[in-house]
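Z., the sequence and structure:
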Amino acid sequence: MFVPVPFLRKLLLVTLCWLTAHMASARDTLSVTPAMPNTALQSWLVGLEDHSRQLTPVQVLAGRDHMAPVHDLLQLEPTNHYWLYIPLRNTTDSAVAPILHFSSLTFVDAWLFVGDSLVLHRAAGAFRPAAELAPGDGRFHLSLPMQAGQQYNLLLKVWHTKHYHPTFDFALQSPLVYQQEHARRERLDAWAQGAMGIFLLYTLLSWLVSRFRPYLWLTFFIAGVALYGLSTGPYMIDWFYPDNPATGWVFNVLYLHLAQLGMYLLVIDFWSLRQFNPRLYRMGLGFATVLPVLSVASFSINYFTGNYNLMNNINLLAFLLPFSFVLLAIRVCWRRLDRAQRFLCYGMLLFVLGALLISGGSFFLREKALDFTPYIGHIATLSIFILFSTGLKEKQRQHELDRNAALAELNRLQHEQNLLLEKKVTERTLDLQQSNGQLRMQWDELGRRNAQIETLINELSHRVKNNLQLLYSLNSLQLPLVQDAAAQHVLRGNIARIRAMMLVNQKLYRPEADTAIPVEESVRELTGHLQQIYDAAHKVSIRQDIQADGVLAPKQLLSLAMILAELLTNSFKYAFGEIGEPVIDIRIRLERDQLQVLYADNGVGLPLDRTNSSSMGLPLVRDLVRQLQGSMEVRNEGGLAYHFRIPM
């Protein structure tokens, strides 16, 4: 049978087109299996950029034939919606649920279609609230359940609000393998964060115990790096901001600034820049004061605009400050640093190296650098801690050696000082023994002299007493024999004066002469004796108010007794001729370093021309007051009154 050539050509062309289409369809469809390894979807995905942000999943799925490979997307605006498409087929005879995972993207929606029919919608993303996540899904992974032998159309919508160009690093992986890798990452994070927590607690307790400030600054540094690691991972957001993760992300850079602050203060304090290099010290403080301004600016940009890309660029430029400060400090201070301080220098070099790696990764990889940045920070921080602790141990060891040497020197000096003191004590003891011997001899000599003086005083007192007693007895014996009234008057006055002197002498030279002189007792005995002489019937009432015991010297007491004897004698003899109730008041008290003596009677008084008379003992009273350097006032109203002021 003859077949025309044109027909054969047409049949061959149709067959070739069918085979080409079938092969293309088989190549563009990704096969999913239960043991599927980690498979990147970059080469399978096609997509488009939605400038209007108004397209629906159905509209996009209908126009999937017009999508371009993702590596050809221009990404004119990073915050536009990006739609990605990939066909999937479960080539096994059992249901599978592969894990779709990615990194960094803020909002991701996944729709799974069978043909044009929607069978599944899942949501994920760094800023996705926990309430919008399906059970078992996370912010950076979601599950895609697929039936046996079924083909699906997977449609993804990416909305990345951080102003970075989105990275479509989607990958499919079997649940078992993903869970194993995820658990391994969590264990690594737990070890790193646990070590950071232990070192943080150690440095904080070390500062509380020792009050050594570099421990506090190292605490700031470790706390900043540890918090940054927690906040860039899912942990801090899941703990504190599960329903508002975008708020949790705005604090990330602030923790880095806290670490930088600790680094500045640690270098300034531990290397004693204030003392040895004031210019570098002021530079470090100036850079440290920039951090609050940078923190406020970064927080404001993140919170109000969400432009993390701009914030990252600003902080990359600001990283030049700690780089330059640390390198300049190492260059300037290296020669004078001791061994302990140089250990921190090695740690700072590691800090610079880690910061360069982080900055370079952030500059070239942008958000992808967040996958390894915390680990670099942890390694650098732990290295700094270990080196700093080693330096402190070395410094403490050197300090212990210096302290022991100083103690040995102090012990030597103390031993020499003790020998010198013992020598001086021995010499001083000999001097004191000689002085004590001389004092003992002088004391014995004074004792002998005092005994002689006491004997002489006793002899003198005895003779004065005998003479006064003799005069008193002679005058008393002579008084009854004298018939003349004037002579009797003179004798009685003499007897009164002698008796006053006898009483005072008796008080002054009594056996207990070392005690205070009893003024009141002396005055009462004197008034009683004179009243017995002149007023045996006790017609005159004598009122006494004396508050001056122990304040009078012997000479003052003798003069006071003579004054009172003269005044009492005058009152008894002349004042109460016609008075029905005669009274004498005697008041003695100490006021403001003056002895106030008030003597008064209610007698007839004296005419004015007789107050200055030379009779009746008044001149003697004035002489006695003058001897005492005192003053006297006389009042002649309603009796006679005397007011004496005697300085003490």
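The chain has 18 helices and 16 strands. The radius of gyration is 60 Å.

Let me know what you think.
H.
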